[in-house]
Amino acid sequence: MKDQIVVIDELQRIDTELSELEVHLKEYPERISEFEHELETSRNTLSELKTQLEQFNENKTKLEQELASNEETIKKSEQKLFDIKTHKEYAALQKEISDTKRTNSELEENLIDEMEKIEGIESKISELEEELSAKEEEYKEKIDEIKEKLEEVKVQYTPKKAEKENIASKISPEILPVYEKIMKRDGTALALAKNEICTGCHMNIPPQLFNEVLTLSRIIQCPSCKKILYCEEEEKQSEAQTA
Ligand SMILES: [Zn+2]
């Protein structure tokens, strides 16, 4: 059974390495997509702002056109005033002119508002564009770095997985599922038995059972934590001397 312990120890070492690699296999792509997601969010914000800017510019153009057309109307009406014969008609046209002028001064205020909005959004856009291009550069470097690491992990993983299969085939079929179960639960399946104590859970091992660990006539599991027990050579020797 000593050979089995050696093989289990070897398998445990490979499994530990495999699970570290698996952590990276999961973690690296997640980190890449986090960076990509952040860039995507910034790009979306920027594109929303640009759509808003287009809308503001359209509003501005409409206001300018309306203002210009009203100016034209005012000019024509003022020209017409000279040709009007009746006082009533004159007063009506004058009212029309002053109404249009009032409308125009409202339009001018709106135009100023719109121009302020455009100015604000333009500076926001150029600020974000700068931020985004700096971020794109920074993240591209980071992403490339992670991708490189991910490739390295993939290169290591496949042969190690094969190595695991090879080692696992050397473990007796009754012990392998026991090992797998404890390994999955605790991340380690072996525990050193020392001075009748399991170093995995620090509980006492009954003397009879401990003797069996020393002789290793069969695979012994700790009664408390169920880990597969083994002992060091010196312990066996000192036990042999006292016996
Ligand atoms: Zn234990």
Write the layout of secondary structure elements.
Elements: H1 2-81, H2 87-168, H3 175-186, E1 190-194, E2 197-198, H4 207-215, E3 228-230, H5 233-242
Parallel strand pairs: 1-3
Antiparallel strand pairs: 1-2
Provide a brief overview of the structure:
It is built from five helices and three strands, in the order H-H-H-E-E-H-E-H. It is mainly α and 243 residues long.
Key traits:
5 helices, three-stranded mixed β-sheet, binds zinc ion, 2 domains, mainly alpha
Rg measurement, Å: 41 Å
What's the order of the H and E elements?
A: HHHEEHEH
The coarse overall form would be: rod-shaped
Query: Hetero groups bound?
Result: zinc ion
Spatial sequence of strands, sheet with the most strands: 2-1-3
Number of helices: 5
Q: Biggest sheet, open or closed, and with what strands and sense?
A: 3 strands, mixed
Q: Uncertain runs with pLDDT below 50, 5 residues or more?
A: none
Please state roughly what percent of the residues sit in beta strands, choosing from under 5%, 5-15%, 15-25%, 25-35%, 35-45% or over 45%: under 5%
Number of strands: 3
Q: Any idea of the CATH topology of the largest domain?
A: Helix Hairpins
**pLDDT averaged residue by residue:** 94
Q: How far do the termini sit from each other?
A: 21 Å
How many domains in all? Answer: 2
CATH architecture annotation of the largest domain:
Orthogonal Bundle
Helix content: over 70%
Describe this structure in words.
The protein is mainly α. The chain folds into two domains: about 25-160, Helix Hairpins (Orthogonal Bundle), CATH 1.10.287.1490; about 175-240, no CATH class. About 80% of the residues lie in helices and about 5% in strands. It contains five helices and three strands; from the N terminus they run αααββαβα. It has helices at about 1-80, 85-170, 175-185, 205-215, 235-240; strands spanning about 190-195, 195-200, 230. A three-stranded mixed sheet has the order 2-1-3. A hairpin with a 2-residue loop joins strand 1 and strand 2. It starts with a helix and ends with a helix. Zinc ion (ZN) binds near residues 191, 200, 222, 225 and 227.
